Amino acid sequence: MQLHGWEAVIFYVLAIGTLFMGVYVVTARLAVHSALCLIATLVNVALLFILLRSEFVAGVQILVYVGGVMVLFLFVIMLVQTRAEEEDKVKLYTRQMWPAVTVAFLLAISFFFAMQPAQMAYRPSQSQTEAEKKGDDPGVRSESGAGLKVSTDTESVGEALYRQAALPFEIASLLLLVAIVGAVLLARGSKQEKLYE
Amino acid sequence: MPEILALLIAPDWVRSLTGERPPNVFWAEYIVWPLIQIVIVLFVVLTVVAYLVYFERKISAFIQARLGPMRVGPWGILQPAADGLKLLLKEDIIPIKADKLVFSIAPIISVVSTLVVLAVIPWGAAWATIANVNIGLLFVLAVSSVSVLGLVLAGWSSNSKYSLLGALRSSAQMVSYEVGMGLSIIGALIFARTLSLSGIVEAQRADGLPYFLFQPLGFLIYLISALGETNRAPFDLPEAESELVAGYHTEYSGFRWALFFMAEYTAMLVTSAVAVTVFLGGWYFPGLDWIKSNWGPNIYVLLSVAAFAGKIAVLIYAYMWFRWTWPRYRYDQLMELGWKWLIPAGLANVVLTGVWYVLALPEAQGGVFGFVKQTAGRYVPTGYGKIYFILTGFIITIPLSWALLATINRRSRDFNLHDQRQLQIKLRSERIKRNEPVAE
What we know:
The complex is a heterodimer. Chain A is built from seven helices and no strands. Chain A is mainly alpha-helical. Chain A starts with 5 loop residues before the first helix and ends with a helix. Chain B is mostly helical. Chain B has two domains: 1-82, no CATH class; 90-433, no CATH class. The longest helix of chain B has 38 residues, at 26-63. Residues 1-6 of chain B have low confidence and may be disordered.
């Protein structure tokens, strides 16, 4: 899908916003401010997903990352960090800066070269561009949402998840289960166990 | 494009206002009419939210045989205006050591995340719904989960121990009950086969029955989780007016405090609206189709909005009734209910509903009974199918889940927290009797 008109404008606004917020995540002095900017970054990425017409992924991104993971992040930060750690005592620029810049630069170059073949390979066919033009209106609204397929994004994610990706899905769920059981075991402590012996 | 024309929802006068002719009605459909709807919905909802406080006081007065607010206007009906004015005129205090930026952003996050959800709620048929998005229900859950951040940040930025502990308390509660709430809805989605909120209403209309009959356990879990999620009694530990100072908003005053309150009452409205949409048939009631063909489309839409509002009002009355009827839970009881009863029950409900549904499919689809027929692109239960789903829901799903959870939670050594606590208390008292040191 190629971006044109307002879509391109929105994309660049969101992309630049994401980058600025991402930079602020690592330069903020207070960890809570970093977390706030990370939230803004994640919301921006969700909006980019909507621009790609995958609103299901966008919804899940907000639900899981902003509503779940970031809340737990904030929990930990709030419990660990105290205000005694004053702003000017934090050293932002250490000798690790140059290695970091180098790695970031290498990553940028590799991204550039990785994307080039994809860009070259992309040639919109005639029917595709027509379909894109038709699909340009932001969805058709109706009295009966059930009758008309406005967008089939949710369905396609579901189909892919339970047909092609069924095995990885199950493996991932098993991994999470192991993690949960491990966390419970660590949290229980020996006192509770001893009580019954 | 006749099928597209039938889907346009803006009334004719909006189209004449923008001077557009179908099928090119971009401005009328996507800009002008939604903006009008947004203004109306925001005005009505914020007024209703202000009056919910009044009704809460009146209902509590009614339950305790008092009069409630009576001074401002006849029967005190101007009380919300007086309260609002008072809050606006109060001094806006920001503690000196507070993080000023976060302190002022926190209430905004809370309010915005609850108000945004109003855009996808199906307030009524045809032109009364603002946006019918494909991921409606997911959108509601996702955006309302963001409001927890407002509380956490408010508690942290106040730089006060009371606020911080209050924020931890309430966000732990909200995160826990959100899970149960999300799980309880999935059972109804198996029947509706869509996430769009308007689509769920239409599905109940096509199936002929509201889904709380097919999903009694899901409805129950949703109602209880919604109480916990909106911090209402009997789960109002974050605030606990009669025992604590306040929770995360201890340091807030004036209008910033009012914003938190507004978010709380709007969340109550939103969770009730979702319950009505998913379980109680939304804006549809039997006989609405007759009204549409006999009284005209406009009265039909207005009556559908009225039906939606009426169903919400019943649920909200029930919430307030609960508040003045049941005592507050203890914190460990609250967590136990959320994690050990509601969430496993939600999981059991999803599995059992899936089993019943697959069994009811026609044999060609891999089912047994054939109680579900495919008509017009979706599966509709037949007459026997409705009886089958209601019976399985009430007679098998609820008792089976109950028995399963009771076995796990009450009879097993590792999960019975109550038993473990009692044992600790017993051991401690024995040590005291033997004059041994009790410090642990």
